[in-house]
């Protein structure tokens, strides 16, 4: 239930209708409440707050018209900003812009102030030659209009700031940091304490020779946005099952293809399959709630677009590489969550499909490396980032992933860059990466040919 609510909140906050709707409903409530407050305070309202009916009507009419006009300005500016963001940084970055609450609050404040003023116009009444005017309500309308103007000014400032490349990259990087904090490590049920036992049991239960394993197929099509892990553990415990997930958030599910394997398959009926499918939240797009690679891919998309011939902005690509390198350094220091999850009694229940450091590294650098292979500045920054990452990695698999990526960066540059001095500079940076990883340079090209001279140059 918690996972579903978080996913719904993600959908609500990335739309322009939710906050404005709440604010207009609040204005509707105030519009009917405040005249009653005025009737209660009618005899105690000071003379300086009172005015003529014509002045009161003109004030409210002006506020209502001005706020509707301001709402049109907010809408127009927002559409222009969305167009710029989509064309320059990619349509997937619209999610970050749409989730900015300031723009939603500005639009909602304009609509709410206008609606409140219109409702007050209908509160004017005449009894026994006396016209009732809600003076307190009118002054509240003036105050709301003033606050709305300040919100509008700040909103325009935010829009102007949000469309700058450095700020776009920083905001996506913040989303990525939040995703890392949520997912690494991520608690799914209770962590199995006996890792070796779980590995052996999983290999035994889900081997190719195991006849009792049955597959659960997806009943819908789309991107897997989140998984209700607690619900899966409860389902497995209820029917005494062990469930091996074949999909993780970010994967595209195709109807009819397996998303999980269940042991024993004899307990797998239509009800269990339907309940298991309900724990998979599927949508039309990827979200960073449980999908860390979604935020990584957004940064990669900004970098790749910046390297395209139509934009040709290597500086933005370098900013993205810097952020990705910093993220990977933090990730290298974190404990990767083990895939085995047990119930409260310690029995193995779920085998999740998680992330690995090599996969995230490849997701972050592969496309930038491929599109920037002819750009010396971007390739140099890639090697510098890999050198910084190499300083944090400890396991052999992490070191092998960094070494593989550094080799591909260097080989691609040698093939694409004709200038010899540029190639020497890249080789020097590559030499530093190898030394940081604890490798012997003469065991790798090009240092196995004339590595000593280059080594002396790098050390000088």
Give a brief rundown of this model.
With 460 residues, this protein is α+β, with helices and mostly antiparallel strands. It is 63% helix and 9% strand. It holds the Pfam family DUF2254.
Notes on the protein architecture:
The protein has 460 residues and is of the alpha+beta class. It folds into three domains: 2-163, no CATH class; 192-283, Pyrimidine nucleoside phosphorylase-like, C-terminal domain (Aldehyde Oxidoreductase, domain 3, Alpha-Beta Complex), CATH 3.90.1170; 295-336 and 355-459. The protein is 63% helix and 9% strand. The protein is built from 17 helices and eleven strands. It has helices at 2-13, 18-40, 53-89, 94-98, 101-121, 135-162, 165-183, 195-205, 229-238, 270-278, 292-306, 314-332, 357-371, 376-390, 396-416, 420-436, 447-459; strands at 125-127, 130-132, 190-191, 214-217, 222-227, 242-245, 252-253, 258-263, 280-283, 340-342, 348-351. The strands form three sheets. The chain has a six-stranded mixed β-sheet with strand order 3-10-11-6-8-4, sandwiched between helices. Helix 16 packs across helix 17. The N and C termini lie far apart (61 Å). 37% of the residues are buried. Residues 186-191 have low confidence and may be disordered. Keywords: Membrane, Transmembrane, Transmembrane helix. Pfam families: DUF2254 (PF10011). This is DUF2254 domain-containing protein.
């Amino acid at each position: 239930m918690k996972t579903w609510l978080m996913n719904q909140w993600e959908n609500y906050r990335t739309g322009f209708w939710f906050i404005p709707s709440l604010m207009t409903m609040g204005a509707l409530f105030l519009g009917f409440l405040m005249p009653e407050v005025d009737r209660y305070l009618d005899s105690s309202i000071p003379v300086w707050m009172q005015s003529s009916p014509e002045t009161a009507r003109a004030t409210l009419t002006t506020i209502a018209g001005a706020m509707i006009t301001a709402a049109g300005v907010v809408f127009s500016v927002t559409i222009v900003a969305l167009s710029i963001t989509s064309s320059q940084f990619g349509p997937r970055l619209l999610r970050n812009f749409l989730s900015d609450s300031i723009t939603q609050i500005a639009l909602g404040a304009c609509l709410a102030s206008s609606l409140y003023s219109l409702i007050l116009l209908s509160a004017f009444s005449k009894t026994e030659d006396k016209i009732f005017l809600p003076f307190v309500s009118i002054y509240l309308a003036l105050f709301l209009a003033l606050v709305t103007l300040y919100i509008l000014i700040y909103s325009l400032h935010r829009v102007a700031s949000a469309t700058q490349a450095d700020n776009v990259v920083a905001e996506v990087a913040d989303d990525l940091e939040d995703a890392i904090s949520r997912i690494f490590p991520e608690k799914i049920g209770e962590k199995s304490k006996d890792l070796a036992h779980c590995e052996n049991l999983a290999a035994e239960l889900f081997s190719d020779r195991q006849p009792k394993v049955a597959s659960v197929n997806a009943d819908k099509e789309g991107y897997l946005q989140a998984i209700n892990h607690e619900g899966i553990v409860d389902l497995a415990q209820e029917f005494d099952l062990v469930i091996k997930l074949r999909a993780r958030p970010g994967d595209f599910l195709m109807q009819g293809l397996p998303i999980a394997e269940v042991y024993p398959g004899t307990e797998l009926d239509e009800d269990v399959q339907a309940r298991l499918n309900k724990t998979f939240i599927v949508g039309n797009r990827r979200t960073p709630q449980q999908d860390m690679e979604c935020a990584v891919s957004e940064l990669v998309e900004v970098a790749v677009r910046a390297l395209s011939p139509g934009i040709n902005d290597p500086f933005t690509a370098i900013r993205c590489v810097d952020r990705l390198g910093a993220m990977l350094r933090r990730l290298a220091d974190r404990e990767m969550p083990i895939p085995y999850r047990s119930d409260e009694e310690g029995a193995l229940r779920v085998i999740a499909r998680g992330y690995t450091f090599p996969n995230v590294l490849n997701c972050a650098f592969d496309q930038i490396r491929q599109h920037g292979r002819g750009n010396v500045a971007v390739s140099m920054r890639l090697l510098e980032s890999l050198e910084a990452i190499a300083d944090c990695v400890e396991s052999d698999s992490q070191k092998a992933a960094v070494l593989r990526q550094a080799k591909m960066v260097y080989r691609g540059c040698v093939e694409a860059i004709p200038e010899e001095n540029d190639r020497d500079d890249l080789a020097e940076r590559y030499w530093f990466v190898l030394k940081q990883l604890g490798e012997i340079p003469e065991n790798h090209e090009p240092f196995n040919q004339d590595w000593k001279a280059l080594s002396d140059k790098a050390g000088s």
